[in-house]
Amino acid sequence: ATPEGRQRSGMIRTPGLLYHLAGFSLLLRRLRIEDHSVENIRRAHQAGPLVYVLHTRSLLDWLALNRVLNERRLPLARLTVGVRSTWLRPVGAMLREGWSALRRRLGGQGAEDPVRSGVLADALVRGVETCLFLVRPPRVRLRFFRRLRRALGAEPPDPVPALLEAQERAERPIQLVPVVVVWRRAPETARSEAARLLLGAEDQPGPLQKLASVLLRTNRAVVQAGRPVDLRELMARTGSGDRKRQARVARILLRRYLVRESLVVRGPRIRPLRWTRRQVLGSPEVRALVGEVARDTGRSPESVRREVERTFDHMAARPTFAAVQLADHVCRFLFDRIFSGVDIRPEDVERLRGAMRDGTPVLVPCHRSHLDYLLVSWVLYRHDIVVPHVIAGENLSFWPLGPIFRRLGAVFIKRSFRGERVFPVVFQRYLRQIIRDGHPLEFYIEGGRSRTGKLLPPRLGVLGMVLDAAVLGREDRPTTLLPIAISYEQIAEEKAYARELSGAAKERENIRQVVRARKVLRRRYGKVHIRVGEPLPCGEVFAAAPAPWPELDRETRRELLQHTGERLMYRIAQSMVLLPTGLVAMALLAGTRRGVRMEALHARVARLDAILRARGAQPAASLSYGGWAVEEAVRRFEQSRFIRRLADPEGDILQIAEDRRITLEYYKNGILHFIAPVSLVAGAVRALQGGRDDAEVDRQAVIDRFRTLVFLLRYEFTLDPERGFEAIADEALDTLAEAGAVEAPEGSRAVAVRDAGILDELAAITRNFLESYALVLRAALALKDRAIPPADLPRHVQEAGKALLAVDEVRHPEALSIANLRNAIKAFQEEGVLAPTEGGGWHVAAEAVEHYRALLAAHLDG
User: What is the mean pLDDT of residues 645-662?
Assistant: First the structure.
């Protein structure tokens, strides 16, 4: 027998009779190990000698690992430090091993410790798969007796020095795989001293606690294997020299890796709400706030303190794992009923796990639907990642959803902090406590749901508070911002969005809306795609600052915040998925005629698909099925009555319902950012041609015109903040050349048109935005003498636009979108073109108006 075989501690390929009689087959049922853990183990096994590392010695954890390794046909440990497995083997093997051990003992060869005898180091040098525990739970709870056992040499030796010795002798790097067995997903809670004495410490559970954990486990008990640790690299990082120091550092790092794997699944320890409340309300910032408000308003400090307490109680989350488990069942029923699936790639999940392992992740999703709140948390839970605290608007705090959402981790905040003194300070201090405790956080940087399908400009309030909290966070738990894109094939709120964009007031969320929402269950809305963009570490933001973050002046900090917000929005935009519904909607709206034949639609879809992929759009898997995906999207739009199909001997004709163009615009806008620069450049070329198809235009003039349009439409499109206008325009011209629309040789100053039809088709994609801005200028001249409050001006412009639409002086109904008109008014006010007067009217800069009207008219007429 080999030395490791004589240890009788190898894992079991086929369990024996005593294994089943002891009830292990029942206790270890329904265990899982996910694909990412399997891949980590296989990669480690290929790279060098494999060592499974568990934190605390536990026969149940060891058997759980044994079981999942068997199920996935992964390498079993042939040597385990601290476990004897003879009695768990089949009867024949058990008798043979027992007889062999008895003969060695009768021959004077007692049981040898694998660490002291060098068996562990020798086995690793020979490439034997092994398993070891970093900690053995103390047999005696009293500290005096533990020290006495250690002094007498009764305590087992530390296996880490043996690992270092083996690595010095081994030819290949030893691969340490941290393994955690999560029997219960519920986060740990603080434990009293009496409970620790009886049950053991939280990270070193005694037999009673371990058995209770197994018996009371959830149905999603999981064995998780982390990323392999290369021991050779680890030794190089700890430096050469004192072996004891190397062992101590290696042990600390290994324990940290194991704790991180547990944090990914269970999250940090949950503290009582009263403790968090005491930390927040007793902080210097909040105490100073109470004194300032009392002094400035003449109120008593006790009255202000009660207001602060009410603010905290209304805002703070009260997460419970029981609520998360219940929500899992509800969400599984809901999403299976209304969606064809939720698609997230393994690399996206691994980005989330990596951020959770390395520090505190802050999820920054785009905001499309009320379902976003549940969807992201549910996807994390189903992939064994802790559910985050979610920053939500207080409009969702109504009964009964408010109390439910609080127990799922919702933190309710006001839509605007303007004029508030108490709330921002309490919220910022609470946010800092969440991040410092290591809880993952989720907030929506757009502020509210996008009614237009476009990504909205970033709102910087919460982002600034997150960075303020991150700079004061723990050094060993860095904060990372994770941009997340959510793409729906069809949105459940499309009718409500269309009403609001057409001028109707937003209906406040209440229980009546929840009851009416049951109608959603009658339809299917296709598939949802979730993508995680490139992470943005907060340390990278701080490193780019000209001074330490707390010392920055207000203007510099705002510039950095704006740049950071734009970077996040661009990374979200680049992660949006190209869906058939968005592609077909864009092809339908790119037409200049009232209808389009199916054959022409397919050709246009193919052209747009090629351009969008060349621009970096990630296509959905359904687009690989060819024309079927287009037909399916057309059928979906027909069922929703967005389009009508007219039979014709030369081929069916599709015609858009005029009152549904604004909803089609929503789906087009979801991928508009990929192609917007190409569309604007195409429009600039046509405008500069002045109606002459054969005329060449100056390349620099096209770039200058593009720069002007992008600046004017700065609230409409998400562009790369790291690149200049000229680079973006040059890339757009290259795309037009590849599509066969223009000829723009490198080094040439002239741009010639090759296919005016393709150029017009692409220019039409953004023409409705230009028409919105032209409409604002025209209406401003007509309404300048009327006393219209600034907040009401968009609706008055919209009413004027409806009259112009009736006589075809406005050609695109979607140009009347209230969101477009608000953006146009905001941009023109910042440019000084429009300004409210003290008398209640509007000042209009005539020269600037004529300049912009001529610019926009050239594009619209072209």
Answer: 90
- What whole-number distance in Å separates Cα of residue 316 and Cα of residue 358? 26
Lowest mean pLDDT among 145-154, 419-428, 789-798: 145-154
Name the token pair of 324: 């998360």
**281-293 in b/e burial notation, b at 16+ Cβ within 10 A?**
bebeebeebbeeb
Tokens representing 137 are 């739970």
| Residue 244 phi, psi dihedral angles, 5° rounding | -65, -40
**Higher per-residue pLDDT: 629 or 69:** 69
pLDDT of 305 higher than 90: yes
Q: Would the pTM count as exceeding 0.85?
A: yes
Label residue 140 by pLDDT band (50, 70, 90): very low
**How many C-beta neighbours within 10 Å does residue 315 have?**
21
| Three-state secondary-structure class, residue 758 | helix
Host H or E run for residue 24:
helix 24-27
| CB hemisphere CA count around 175 (13 angstroms) | 20
Contact 457, 715 (CB under 8 A): yes
Mean pLDDT of 565-582: 96
Q: What b/e readout covers 199-224, taking b as 16+ CB neighbours within 10 angstroms?
A: bbbeebbbeebbeebbeebeebbbbb
Positive or negative CA dihedral for 563, 568, 574, 576? Answer: negative
Dihedral pair phi/psi, residue 53, rounded to 5°: -115, 120
Question: Are the beta carbons of 794 and 845 closer than 8 angstroms?
Answer: no
* pLDDT 10s digits, 253-298: 899 999 999 999 988 988 889 999 999 999 999 999 999 999 998 9
E strand spans, 395-505: 410-413, 441-442, 479-488
The 10 Å CB-count burial string (b at 16+, else e) for 126-148 is eebbbbbbbeebbeeeeeeeeee
| pLDDT of the residue at 190 | 64
Estimate to the nearest angstrom the gap between the alpha carbon of 658 and the chain centroid: 36
Tokens of 678: 């190409």
* Separation of alpha carbons 619 and 625, rounded Å: 11
Bridge partner list, 80: 131
pLDDT > 90? residue 766: yes
Q: Where are the alpha helices (DSSP H) in 473-579?
A: 494-501, 511-516, 538-544, 554-575
Evaluate whether 701 touches 688 at the Cβ level (below 8 Å).
Answer: yes
| pLDDT given for residue 147 in this prediction | 54
The DSSP symbol for 118 reads: S
**β-pair partners for 743:** 752
Query: The tokens of 221 are what?
Result: 């008990």
Of 230, 223, 257, which is closest to residue 35 (Cα–Cα)? 223
CB 115 within 8 A of CB 132: no
pLDDT for 141 beyond 50 = no
- Percent of the chain, pLDDT > 70? 93
- Length of the chain measured in residues: 862
Amino acid in position 197: L
- pLDDT for residue 671: 95
Please give the Cα distance from 138 to 664 (Å, whole number): 67
| Helix (H) and strand (E) counts in the chain | 38, 26
Give first-to-last CA distance, the chain, whole Å: 88
pLDDT at 445 over 60: yes
Helix axes 494-501, 818-830, angle to 10 degrees: 50
**CA torsion 475→476→477→480, rounded to 10°?**
70
Q: How far from 505 is each of 225, 500, 501, 508, 734, CA to CA, in Å?
A: 52, 6, 9, 9, 43
| pLDDT attached to residue 405 | 92
The rounded percent of the chain whose pLDDT value lies above 90 is 65
Contact 683, 763 (CB under 8 A): yes
Shortest CA distance to 828 belongs to which of 796, 794, 862? 794
Residue 145: predicted pLDDT:
47
Q: Is 80 helix (H, G, I), strand (E, B) or coil?
A: strand
Q: 530 pairs with which residues across the strands?
A: 344, 486
